[in-house]
Design goal:
The complex is a heterodimer of chains A (457) and B (106). Chain A has 457 residues and is mainly alpha-helical. Chain A has one domain. Helices cover 77% and strands 1% of the residues of chain A. In chain A, strands 1-2 form a two-stranded antiparallel sheet. In chain A, a hairpin with a 4-residue loop joins strand 1 and strand 2. In chain A, helix 2 packs parallel to helix 4. By secondary structure, chain B is an all-alpha fold. Chain B has one domain: Helix Hairpins, CATH 1.10.287.3510. In chain B, 77% of the residues lie in helices and 0% in strands. Chain B contains four helices and no strands. In chain B, helix 2 runs antiparallel to helix 3 and helix 3 runs antiparallel to helix 4. The longest helix of chain B has 31 residues. Chains A and B meet through helix 5, helix 6 and helix 9 of A and helix 2, helix 3 and helix 4 of B.
């Protein structure tokens, strides 16, 4: 509760500072708000509280996912205000909308009622629609925003239809009562209920950018401003997967025979479509967009055979992916700012000119591939472990083959950085420089000591 | 009190909502004008509203009607953002035909 209030107040204050032309105050207010909500969030640990008449429940699951979300948002706010401040007139508003999106995300991590699921998804998505189109004069940004908006509203329609059908069968929107109904039904529910579950499933697959509902992802991630893409792909995925795990874990486990087929087909398709299409991309940004579809596929693997390892492995994977994806998009932003293009050729000779940038980018690419001693390796390890526990041997084998395919395209820009030559200097502002080093160290540290995170929930 | 609405069997409400929902989905999938697409999405949301109110009456449970208020409020917010995005695109491209929006595909 305190977290939601702090975030909303900080964001509203920043909006006022934007109106009053006190732009310099906006970033400190947002950063203080995020730090305070990180503290309030940590104080909720082991202290399960029910708020809004049982519509939300703040428990350890929420705290763990929300800390990752708040931390990554904080890092991105700092990057955004240092790197984009010079060509950004609307900085306070953008940072405020990022915070409003975080509010939606935290609602998604703690809902216990279908109303809050819907509201959380809408608060999160409406913020991202605006953020994707924040470059008003840029046609690409416009296009990304409209596509995201139309497809997002379309999927909200499916979500609501699903909720309405489930409400029609159970006469309740409360997750506990729906779970009670499902448990009493002993696996035999009316077809309306199953259609409802499938509609909700497809809407959530859409939100996590998994195939076959992935068609918007490459265009939106490619057209949105790079740092916003980093936000959407890292924390956006984290919140949506949190909601996915929460809903299916609490309500629909007795019906697993009815939906697991769809889920593993989605996982299979996401991994193959994402990885194989990424192979052909010339633009690094578009390649990372396709690779994010593949990563959604890996995370779905943990959900296919849902068990008590699922939430922990999804959290670890989301954290590892978020760290690596933030680093790669920030480096891409800096390179693009200098060279004017997202092509792999822009990375030529980066290692000579800015060794730090090249090393951090290499670490993030290795982590996305899943090389041992990086966070990404243990992310994949826990996910595969969870899938193996549920007996999905051949699906796990397929995922392992897919990670080898991933290595090919992730290493292309790395090879370009170290193999070719360039004569353009690339310099970095001080704060972003140290933040990048911090993220690089974190990726290695989590890869070396994975027990810290994996044992949390 | 047995109003005329309660004499109609629930199946009829479900059929009507399903038809409206499908019209909305077809509209989104086939039309090219962004505003018409947008109207189709609203039609989908309103078919859900109708269904929720019907179920709410059927079960004599107010929760569904509360959700309808939330859907209306969110739909209003969505309209505000959606129309802003469409106006922004019209200023840059002088069209709102989504078939023209293919710059990102190369």
């Amino acid at each position: 509760m305190n977290v939601l209030l702090t975030l909303s107040i900080a964001a509203t204050l920043a909006l006022f500072f934007g109106v009053l032309r006190l732009k310099n105050l906006a970033t400190p207010v947002i950063v203080i708000g995020l730090l305070a909500s990180l503290v309030f969030n940590a104080m909720e640990w082991n202290n399960t509280t029910s708020i809004f008449n049982d519509m939300m429940l703040y428990n350890n699951f929420t705290v763990a996912f929300a800390s990752v979300g708040l931390f990554i948002t904080l890092i991105l706010v700092l990057f955004y205000s240092e790197l984009s401040a010079k060509h950004e007139f609307h900085l306070p508003e953008i940072l405020a909308i990022m915070l409003f999106g975080t509010v939606g995300g935290i609602v998604l991590l703690s809902f216990r009622n279908m109303v809050m699921l819907f509201l959380g998804i809408e608060i999160l998505s409406l913020s991202y629609y605006v953020l994707a189109g924040i470059r008003k004069q840029n046609v690409y940004s416009n296009e990304a925003s409209l596509k995201y908006f139309l497809m997002g509203a379309f999927s909200s329609g499916f979500l609501l239809m699903g909720i309405a059908l489930i409400y029609g069968v159970t006469a309740s929107l409360n997750l506990n009562e729906i779970a009670g109904y499902v448990n009493n039904a002993k696996g035999i529910v009316p077809p309306y209920f199953l259609v409802g579950v499938l509609l909700i499933l497809s809407a959530l697959l859409f939100k996590v950018a998994a195939a076959p509902f992935h068609f918007w992802t490459p265009d939106v991630y490619d057209g949105a401003p790079t740092l916003i893409t980093a936000l959407m792909s890292s924390v956006g995925k984290l919140y949506s997967f949190g909601a996915f795990v929460l809903l299916f874990n609490s309500c629909f486990i007795p019906l697993i025979a009815d939906w697991e087929v769809i889920l593993w087909i989605a996982a299979l398709l996401s991994m193959s479509v994402g990885n194989i299409t990424a192979l052909y991309q010339k633009s690094v940004k578009r390649m990372l967009a396709y690779s994010s579809i593949a990563h959604a596929g890996y995370m779905l693997l943990a959900l296919v055979g849902i068990n008590n390892l699922t939430s922990g492995s999804v959290l670890f994977y989301a954290l590892a992916y978020a760290l690596a994806s933030v680093v790669s998009f920030v480096v891409l932003y800096i390179v693009r700012d200098k060279k004017g293009s997202y092509d792999i050729a822009s990375f030529n000779g980066l290692a000579q000119k800015n060794r730090m940038l090249a090393v951090v980018f290499t670490i993030s690419m290795l982590s996305l591939t899943g090389i041992p001693l990086t966070a990404g390796f243990f992310g994949k390890f826990y996910i595969f472990n969870s899938a193996l526990q549920s007996g999905y041997y051949w699906l796990t084998a397929f995922a392992v083959i897919n990670s080898f395919i991933g290595a090919y395209y992730y290493l292309k820009p790395v090879v370009a950085m170290f193999a070719s030559k360039s004569d353009e200097e690339i310099t970095m502002p001080a704060l972003s420089n140290s933040l990048l080093i911090l993220l690089g160290i974190l990726i290695i540290l989590i890869g070396a000591l994975p027990g810290f995170i994996s044992g949390v929930i | 009190m047995n109003t005329i609405f309660q004499q109609i069997p629930i199946e009829h409400y479900i059929t009507l909502s399903a038809i409206l929902f499908c019209i909305g989905v077809l509209g989104v999938l086939t039309r090219r004008n962004a505003i018409v697409l947008f109207m189709s999405v609203e039609l989908m949301l309103n078919s859900v509203n109708l269904l929720l109110v019907a179920f709410s009456m059927f079960h004599a449970n107010p929760a569904g009607q509360i959700l309808v208020f939330f859907i209306m409020a969110v739909a209003a917010a969505e309209v505000a953002i959606g129309l802003a995005i469409i106006v922004m695109i019209y200023r840059n491209l002088k069209t709102i035909d989504i078939a023209e929006l293919s710059k990102l595909k190369h």
